[in-house]
Amino acid sequence: MIVESARGPFAALEALPTAGACELGAALLVPGYTGSKEDFIPVIAQLAAAGRRVLAVDMRGQHQTPGPDDPDAYHPARLGADIAAVAEAAKTAHLLGHSFGGLVAREAVIGGYTPASLTLMSSGPSALPGPRAEELSSMLSFLRGAAARDLKGKIEEIWHGVLKPQAIADGVPAPLVKFLGERMLASNPTALVTMARHLLTAPDKTDDLAAREIPTLVLYGEDDNAWPPGAQEAMAARLAAQRTCIPGAAHSPNVEAPATTAHALTTFWNAVEARGAVVLRRVVLRRLRVPAEPDGTPQAPRATRRRR
């Protein structure tokens, strides 16, 4: 499907409950670097089965969402504005960003978008560290100096010479290898280069995000090989966020442990909505000047004693 927003069209996947109405707040899922909406296929139906509409989207320049050959279009703040526009157009409540998508989702929130909740999945407080950063730096070194018209050919060389043989050696099924190649070569080359640079230079904006006071979940795999689990745990503490570590998962819990991840997300989203309902009841009762119990329910009328 295509989501038409104030900032243009965005390709998306949508999942709806197989039975009953969508009674809960809808969720918008944002993929990471070199990713796409298809990364959420293992988990999206399970999330929808809980009674909510779920959308996964390609960011600008990713896979099936077109993007220009202008590096400024892929600055995290602009990508964040895109996601805010998609959320508004699709009428979603909860926002999740995976990896680089988490950096983009936080930009959307810092920029003024106010979701019911924010989930940072396998996403850290600042620039990508360690071996994954070294891999990105090597790629950028190979691409450095190439004219915009030559970037696509250079990226094809990276895919066929490095990434495809690595995927085959890792035992990735042939149909998935085919899809990964098609996705990478369909993505805008300028987007791939610019997003990689931002991943390597992202500043720590945890305090800016905390100041927005959005209910937040930090979720990651116990074996995450991008941002270390300890760094994500520390970020969660600074955000006063809930934290969930997914056993047996690495950098993509949505793929490596979809059932556990879906349960954690559904539990978090339901709790946020329940707290919101309590607050709303309290506000309404306060305006009506009706006494309420601590949980927001109206107090039962008390019997009055008759005077003799």
Number of helices: 11
Shape label: globular
Distance between the termini: 74 Å
- Total strands: the figure is 8
Rg (CA only): 22 Å
Corresponding CATH architecture: 3-Layer(aba) Sandwich
Structural class comes to: alpha/beta
Report on the biggest sheet.
Answer: 8 strands, mixed
In short:
The chain has 308 residues and is of the alpha/beta class. It has eleven helices and eight strands. Residues 304-308 have low confidence and may be disordered.
Could you walk me through the main structural features you see in this protein, from its secondary elements to its overall organization?
With 308 residues, the protein is an alpha/beta fold. The chain has one domain (2-281): 3-Layer(aba) Sandwich (Rossmann fold). It is 48% helix and 15% strand. It has 11 helices and 8 strands. It has an 8-stranded mixed β-sheet, with helices on both faces. Strand 1 (2-5) and strand 2 form a beta hairpin. The longest helix has 31 residues, at 258-288. 39% of the residues are buried. The model is unreliable at 304-308 (pLDDT under 50).
